[in-house]
Design goal:
The protein is of the alpha/beta class and 215 residues long. The protein has eight helices and eight strands. The mean pLDDT is 96. It binds adenosine-5'-diphosphate (2 copies) and zinc ion.
Length: 215
């Protein structure tokens, strides 16, 4: 078959970005992630939508969801251009899930299951390379030299929304809006539930097996 279309679901901090890199390396698919796309467009003028904030960044820094109209458009364009993809960070509510069902077909829907206490630790310790976007954790996957990217020597920074207060808000937005999305795919019998605890390599072994079973 052609390259697989993989949807990776899970709460903030579950390891979607980390595992997406493995999927990209193994299957040669495109990584489509609304979080990164929105971070590159934080200052975009969306005042014509007449919503709470005039830019995506306003919603993101508050830990709230960016309006569907903005996000759906990003995903539609990105998926049209991809020959196989791993989609991460979308859909985050039922309207987005229904929109996605209308524009593409999924081969694998995997849910990374991680307990709440661990999510807070993962998110508040996350560091991102300013230059290449590589992902680290101060304790769980530290760089060789503190604050410096192993890949490119760039500076490691904390995301604006990875502070404890915003993390708590994001987790409650997840409970309210995104949990129903998991149920949506579960009801269709499409969901592969992956234990997301343990080392990134252990999680990848489970996820890889699940993808192989479905493709
Ligand atoms: P998401 O994209 O789902 O928000 P990330 O992949 O960015 O999650 O991971 C969140 C943080 O947790 C990062 O700092 C990452 O290095 C770390 N991390 C990812 N997977 C694991 C794991 N299996 N065990 C411990 N820490 C992890
Ligand atoms: P995480 O890695 O913690 O899961 P993301 O990088 O996916 O976080 O998302 C960061 C922020 O970007 C979210 O808190 C939200 O404000 C916005 N965002 C990302 N994806 C979506 C989406 N599908 N719908 C609405 N907002 C989104
Ligand atoms: Zn880097």
């Amino acid at each position: 078959m052609s390259q697989p279309n993989v949807l990776l679901l899970g709460p903030p901090g579950a390891g979607k970005g980390t595992q997406s890199s493995n999927i990209v390396q193994t299957y040669g698919v495109e990584h489509v992630t609304t979080g990164d796309a929105l971070r590159s467009n934080k200052g975009m003028d969306i005042s014509d939508l007449d919503v709470e904030y005039d830019t995506p960044g306003g919603f993101m820094d508050a830990g709230e969801l960016v309006p569907n109209a903005v996000v759906n458009e990003i995903v539609k364009t990105a998926l049209r251009e991809a020959d196989g993809y791993v989609l991460d960070g979308y859909p985050r509510n039922l309207d987005q899930a229904e929109y996605l069902d209308g524009i593409t077909g999924l081969d694998v829907v995997a849910f990374l299951d991680v307990p709440r206490e661990e999510l807070v630790e993962r998110l508040t310790g996350r560091r991102i390379c300013d230059e290449c976007g590589a992902n680290y954790h101060v304790e769980f996957s530290p760089p060789e030299e503190a604050g410096v990217c192993d890949e490119c020597g760039g500076e490691l920074v904390q995301r604006d929304d990875d502070t404890e207060e915003t993390v708590r808000e994001r987790l409650s937005v997840y409970d309210e809006n995104t949990r129903p999305v998991i149920e949506h795919y579960d009801e269709q019998g499409e969901l592969s539930r992956i234990d997301g605890e343990g080392s990134p390599d252990e999680v990848w072994e489970r996820l890889h097996t699940a993808i192989e079973e479905r493709t």
